[in-house]
Amino acid sequence: MKSIAxxxxxxxxxxxxxxxxxxxxxxLTQTQSDYNNGSTSLALQDIDEYLGMNSSDTWAxxxxxxxxxxxxxxxxAVDSFDQLILLDGSNAQAYNDRALILSGGMxxxxxxLNSLETxxxxxxxxxxxxxxxxxVLENMKSYAEALEAYKQAATINPSxxxxxxxxxxxxxxxxxxxxxxxxxxxxxxxxxxDADAWNTKGLVLMExxxxxxxxxxxxxxxxxxxxxxxxxxxxxxxxxxxENEPEKTMTFKSRQ
Length: 256
Known about the structure:
The model is unreliable at 1-15 and 243-249 (pLDDT under 50). It is built from 13 helices and no strands. The protein has 256 residues and is mainly α. It starts with 21 loop residues before the first helix and ends in a 12-residue tail after the last helix. The protein has two domains: 1-143, Serine Threonine Protein Phosphatase 5, Tetratricopeptide repeat, CATH 1.25.40; 158-256, Tetratricopeptide repeat domain (Serine Threonine Protein Phosphatase 5, Tetratricopeptide repeat).
């Protein structure tokens, strides 16, 4: 299974929070300049200077955390989110983002799960938090619980295609093919550019001896990601199945 993915949050440095002094404002402006010029390390020094003057600015702590993520300094990024949380214990997004670092960057899944549980206590109606919880639970091999988390995410936000896909994928790996297909179809209906969903649907159809339909799915996956080795291999195997009707040799990839 793919490890949980975490993305550097998008920050608009054009929207600078109010500074406490002219010096503080200077360091924010310098942060913007260095960041825009591609110097992450200098931007980090700048934001540290600012925080030395205004340590209660939650925006600055969040920005620092994301700089550290970009630099793959994950432990320090968690520390920055911890500082943010000390200042604003009701910040659900901070708990969520902290969890993504813990699981995705540091492989500390249990602590990540605890952080997500707190985020969901604060905001139980956030589909992304439920989805991230599902990904952490998959990393912990708690597949039944992960499935429930994805169901909750899809219920809250029916347009969240990855929540439908992960449900379909988990059911497929369990051999529940008839239950898996409608979920994969839903993911594809929402996002027809998802090569993983097309590929998994193809594997399910192969298991159901629907080789020609599976070929169409593998063709789509390979077209979307021409350099995806697994997609190309599955496509070639399905072509062989159509031509020679051999015993199926394709299997689902391990969930871990």
